[in-house]
Design goal:
Helix 4 packs antiparallel against helix 5. This protein is of the alpha/beta class. The chain has nine helices and twelve strands. A hairpin with a 6-residue loop joins strand 11 and strand 12. The chain has two domains: 162 residues, Rossmann fold (3-Layer(aba) Sandwich); 68 residues, no CATH class. The longest helix has 18 residues. The termini are far apart. The protein is globular. The strands form three sheets. Strands 6-7-8-3-9-10 form a six-stranded mixed beta sheet, with helices on both faces. Pfam families: ABC_tran. It comes from Prauserella rugosa. It is found in: Cell membrane. Keywords: ATP-binding, Cell membrane, Ion transport, Iron, Iron transport, Membrane, Nucleotide-binding, Transport. GO terms for molecular function: ATP binding; ATP hydrolysis activity.
Length: 272
Amino acid sequence: MTQPQLVADGLTAGYQDRSVIEKLDLTVPPGRITAIVGANACGKSTLLRSLSRLLRPRGGRVLLDGAAVHAMPAKRLARRLGLLPQSPIAPEGITVADLVGRGRHPHQRVLSRWSAADDDAVADALDATETAELADRPVDELSGGQRQRVWIAMALAQRTEILLLDEPTTFLDVNHQVEVLDLLTDLNHTRGTTIVMVLHDLNLAARYSDRLIAMVDGRIHAAGEPGEVLTAANVETVFGLRCEVITDPVSGRPLMLPVGRHGARQPAQPAG
């Protein structure tokens, strides 16, 4: 199967009278996991929203297999590209099962009925995110972490070739952060799903991505394999943070250790 090609060509986008990203070029590696990192307000979410066509570019284009995504019929695009935005809002009173089921709407035809394939997709998504036991509960009664896993389940139920996720580990404890990222890695390995995600945790981004993109002030400062991008010099430029980068003894990927003003080892004080 041919892998989808998602490209930003001279992309300029922003809000009201302010451009956040300008003339940005990006080719998303097909069939791989790409993580986007950077300081707050550097343009990460703006880039993701533009790639998904949630935000219309002021200049340039976003192309999927050579076709402009903003000219595609919405349902056709939604069968190929899924988005989990920051802080999505569920309709009041909707149950978990119904919300996850909405991920199947792009696959519904006019006058078509809910199918066994739809049931299977929803069940698989609930099982994968460990939310099956929550199926009958209203979403607005859930904790923040439970809600986030349910939204991820809805995105998985959509079963798209490309999945864009803006901070998918928000509200999750460490255990569930790792579980979600393991799940996305499994999805990439078993189905070949192209995944692009915005992450705040540099070490998780380096561990779980094939390609790392570091942004500064609306532009791409560095892009490449995690070992090429997660360096002490790049972290200082992108985040203004002094650090040491070592090899993660578990994954073999780069591991960033922040120094900070009180993080450095202090010399022992003489006795007496």
